[in-house]
Fold these 2 entries.
Entry 1:
Amino acid sequence: KIYDDVSDLPGFEYDFVIVGAGAAGNVVANRLTENANFSVLVLEAGVSNEGIIDSSVPFLVENLLSGPASYEWNYTTTPQVGLNNRVVPYPRGDTRNYSMHGTLRRSYQLTFWAAVLHTVSSHPNITFSVNYAMLDGMVYTRGSAEDFDRYAANEKWTPPADNHDTRGEFNPAVHSTDGINSVSLSGFQWPIFQEHVIQATRELPDEFPFNLDFNSGEPLGVGWLQSTIGGGERSSSATSYLAPKFIQRQNLHVLLHAQVSRLVDPQSNAGGVAFGGVEFSQGGSLFTAKPTKEIILSAGSVGTPIILMNSGVGNKTALTALGITSVLDLPSVGQNATEQPGINAGWSVNSMQTVDEITQNATLFNEAFAQWNATHTGPFVNIPVTHIAWTRLDADSPIFQHVMDPSAGPKTPHIEVFVGTGGFAAGATGNFMSAGITVLTPTSRGSVSLQSNNPFDPPLIDLGLLTTDFDLFTAREAIKKAYRFVQAPVWKDYIIAPTIDLLNMTTDALDEFIRNNAGPVGHLVSTAAMSAKDASYGVVNPDLLVKGASGLSIIDASILPFVTSAHTQAAAYVVGERGADLVKQRWK
Ligand SMILES: Cc1cc2nc3c(=O)[nH]c(=O)nc-3n(C[C@H](O)[C@H](O)[C@H](O)COP(=O)(O)OP(=O)(O)OC[C@H]3O[C@@H](n4cnc5c(N)ncnc54)[C@H](O)[C@@H]3O)c2cc1C
């Protein structure tokens, strides 16, 4: 059951208390409550996605992130040295504007999906998926087999909303059809643009070969976009793992609007420090939920380290300086923060078949929305991105003379180019195509830390973006790669001109452009990283239990020791599935 008000909760004691109903937390809640003997309470600061139209309509995802009614925690980063000291927003789910949301805002302006998904200066950032797992861009990319040696067969391959013939667009052999979360190809076609992309792969087969399915474990090449969308509607861990058939389980309780401040009542025992409760606030009052078996932190790569540090788990010296009593000295908490930097490129094009026709015309926009509302078909069933190109730096790149290749192996991309129809500059008129360009294997590291001992103060989020030579070099090369893709002969009569000519800039000017315009893409990991049991660094052991603690697990993207060369929601699901199995084994 889902509760909005703490007074409706049946009690305060449960076998498992999970903090965070995000991508991974919902998976864990679902899997643990498969055992009817386990009682589970999920505490989530966010709101329900029910009735929030922008959360259901794939095309409207951007509304969730921008404007006065956005769903985010309103965080910003510290000044980013690698971004010319800019302070960039770092949104996460937020409840404050809930009452304003839920209707289609007519003032909607497309700032191009890459601006949302790959965040640029307008919406750089992020961690969360979202408040209650409803806000990510739905892009579904597993990473390479080298990133992940195994992938849990938990997806449900679903026909696209337009039921078009998908032969040649994916490999059915690498997808499951009976899992929980829907994954599909795009349910709306942009034929002229798509044909150009495919023709470019034929013309540039060495650098940009066609890849039938980039989720096969070998992503290199250009493949058709896959998204967590089913029946033309967002499918997220909130809509799938917490679907009504699961929510009606008697042993599953989800309390929304509940912001966890800290873990309380630490006791030392033979297994390590054990916390007796989880303190949370709702409506200005504090409450404590008690676990009889385990506390599971699934609050994401920002939320999880914050809760640990507010509970006295972290760097002893730093916590003591803030007046927080140290309970467990774990200096790696909040460190090693790894985020991918992204930047956009755009070109004006000689085609009327682009999404700009809809976003720049209120009548067509409203018609498209009406079509979605009536039949879940039409351009709103997807974001207007059609393909992703995954590529590597050239093997003889000079950077490798003094930097070791940070990728997981030779079949793993360093660079992503996300191509779609439409422009990303709000208010621009005309027709465009765009590329969201991402450095997938950054070597820069940042941190999440506390600025005070008040658990409700915003944290200090330093992403450390573009602070290494490798990352800046790769960002430059990634832009050049994107330009090489659009230099395939097929684009000659299609592309008119770049919106900003990044190719003919001097290296210094390009670096300056990157530093002034790049931003985080929302794939933060590693702030509570997993390491070997006897390692002197790291936060959790391979069983996902916190080092030096007992009855305390972390199951979310923060435990990933490296970022996958991909978008990270699939990785979060994998962590959720594996983590739930480990907990079940411990308590069977
Ligand atoms: C704008 C954006 C777009 C993205 N798009 C994509 C995409 O298209 N494809 C993709 O693969 N990945 C995408 N990602 C990344 C993906 O969303 C994350 O990797 C994934 O959600 C991480 O899962 P998680 O379970 O670790 O954390 P989250 O999903 O962030 O879940 C954490 C949950 O904990 C809650 N929480 C945090 N602190 C507290 C607290 N103190 N008390 C109570 N609750 C708390 C949060 O509200 C949240 O619901 C995107 C990220 C962002 C920010």
Note: The CA atoms of residues 19 and 297 lie 5 Å apart.
Entry 2:
Amino acid sequence: MIRFEHVTKRYADGTTAVDDLSFEVAEGELVTLVGPSGCGKTTTMKMVNRLIEPTSGRIAVDGEDIAEADPVALRRRIGYVIQQVGLFPHKTVLENTSTVPHLLGWQRKKGRERAAELLDLVGLDPSVYGDRYPDQLSGGQRQRVGVARALAADPPVLLMDEPFGAVDPVVREHLQTEFLRLQSQVRKTVLFVTHDIEEAVRLGDRIAVYGSGRIEQFDTPATVLGAPATPYVADFVGADRGLKRLSVTPIEPGDLEQPPVVHLDDPLPKAAARLASDGARWAVVLDDAERLHGWIPADAADGAEGLVRDHARRMEAWLPVGAPLKQAFSTMLQHDAGWIAVLDEDRFLGVLTPARLHEALRRSIDADAGGIARGDVRLQTVADA
Ligand SMILES: Nc1ncnc2c1ncn2[C@@H]1O[C@H](COP(=O)(O)OP(=O)(O)OP(=O)(O)O)[C@@H](O)[C@H]1O
């Protein structure tokens, strides 16, 4: 856990880089610090491992005032990943990764085993990459080694300063996805600096939006996007914040439409009657175990004999409940589907359509703005207004 209490940093030339900052990062939480260049993000981060000393205020890591700690010992307990990675050029990938365990006095064999394990975890096969030198790697691979090295001594706290800033957008997105997967396994307490709001929203459990030397808003990505605390934050997150929200708004059961449901072994006349009574053009088809099989169009059932299974079509477009709306949108586009099925484990819950997706997004914006649950929002339509 990291705690800032009224921390101010004034440089010798009089620049106030950080002004009376108080916030807390909970154990296992990933907080992104985001803001324009020069707003004090890096200064904030470097005060945690004492590369910079605060002018006033107190910083605690795991309850301990870091001013009392030995800076070198402190840094070994805190993983640090920076944009230029800072790998030792004359050391192999494996040696680079085992640097901190080595400094901590681990046995060479144990340190190397740990390093190999971590390289695997960040997606680099140690038998392929372990003996290479940093200049024999791509930029993205170097960043991965940087992350593995920072995790090698299993520090409870990780500081990351624009770690993916120097790679192209495609590699960057890839590294972000991998890092999220990794973090879900290792659950470190992470402070992550970025100037990219998309990255901050994607990675952060909470985001601190910096103005000049101060935090303008400290909240979950959904709230920062849905209810910016100040005009400055609204401006910083951008006019397309509705779109950005798609990635942080989960599908909820209440968002779903309930089309008629038939089963594989139902006779077609029964299915046709079910479709007709709902006035529906298609029905979802489930198997005996109530698992999603696919769908059947009304005209295939109408006037036909036999069983639903003879005319049912497979449905590939489905998502688990809780997946982000953005994934729902992209799945619809990818499968050219007018709806996608939403499942809870194997259980069919309902379908999401473009209209329902749009509604869910509007509801989540109104819910955050009004501080109420999404299901309690009453949407106004253009006709109501
Ligand atoms: N050693 C220093 N002496 C004087 N001023 C400094 C020093 N280091 C940083 N500053 C100033 O402090 C302010 C905050 O700098 P900091 O590096 O923390 O910003 P940042 O938000 O990390 O920016 P960037 O995204 O560009 O890295 C800036 O105005 C910067 O010029």
Note: The chain has two domains: 2-245, 253-360.
